[in-house]
Amino acid sequence: MYRKRTNEMTRMALFFALLIVTAKLVIPLPLLDYLSLQIITVFLIYPFLGKKDGSIVMISYLVLGVIGLPIFASGGGFAYVFKPTFGFLLAFATLPLIQALLTQLVRQQKWSPLKRMLIINYSSLFYIHLIGIGYKLVILRLATQNFAALSSILTVTTLIDLSCDILLVFVASVVTLKMKSLLGVKASGLFN
User: Fold this and answer.
1) What gap in Å lies between CA 126 and CA 87, rounded to an integer?
2) Is the pTM of this model over 0.90?
3) In the beta sheet, which residues pair with residue 36?
4) Which residue among 56, 66, 105, 190 is least enclosed by CB atoms within 10 Å?
């Protein structure tokens, strides 16, 4: 029993560390935006940690970043709550729960493992962007009175972010299937 829990805690620590490292791997984008490679790690957490442990890791990451540890893409601290990209972090924190729900919804379908995973992951990506863009809209609306400029900025940054995230989520899905295969997990048991 202790060995199993130690193994689980080790995996949680590894994914927590991966969240921090991949958050720091950013690609600058136009209009003061950036793309973080963290999305790949975010989409690996639920398949390998499950709903409970994945949620613990994601919520711990969010809380520790907000209280001041510089673990987010551009730092940390309470002021990060007022950054336009903080909504994406909020969505990340709840993602294992959303993925568990989606897994239950598609479990009975007789789809290939890749199709099942892509449907779950792209639905989850839609959720992330819905929360993230909604939050970004509120923060930017408070910062500017020029709605035309705001809508132009959101359109450009959203198209770039979403295009890149679609590709990165596909990569995460394929990596998950390959890793599960290498670790000897049955294809039908993709998610914990």
Assistant:
1) 13
2) no
3) 26
4) 105
Query: Between the CA of residue 137 and those of 39, 97, 140, 163, 170, what are the distances in Å?
Result: 21, 24, 5, 19, 26
Q: Helix 38-66 to helix 86-106 angle, to the nearest 10 degrees?
A: 120
The candidate with the shortest Cα–Cα distance to 104, out of 92, 122, 116, 94, is 116
**Range in 54-68, 159-173, 176-190 the model is least confident about:** 176-190
Which residue, 62, 68, 64, is CA-closest to 88? 62
> From CA 66, how far away is CA 81, in angstroms rounded?
7
Q: What angle do CA 80, 82, 85 make, to 5 degrees?
A: 75
Among 63, 46, 36, 38, smallest CA distance to 12 is for: 46
Mean of the pLDDT values across residues 22-38? 80
Measured between alpha carbons, how far is 26 from 127 in angstroms, rounded to an integer?
22
The tens digit of pLDDT for each residue in 98-126 reads 999 999 999 888 889 999 999 999 999 99
CA 57 to chain centre: 12
Structure tokens of 128? 């992330």
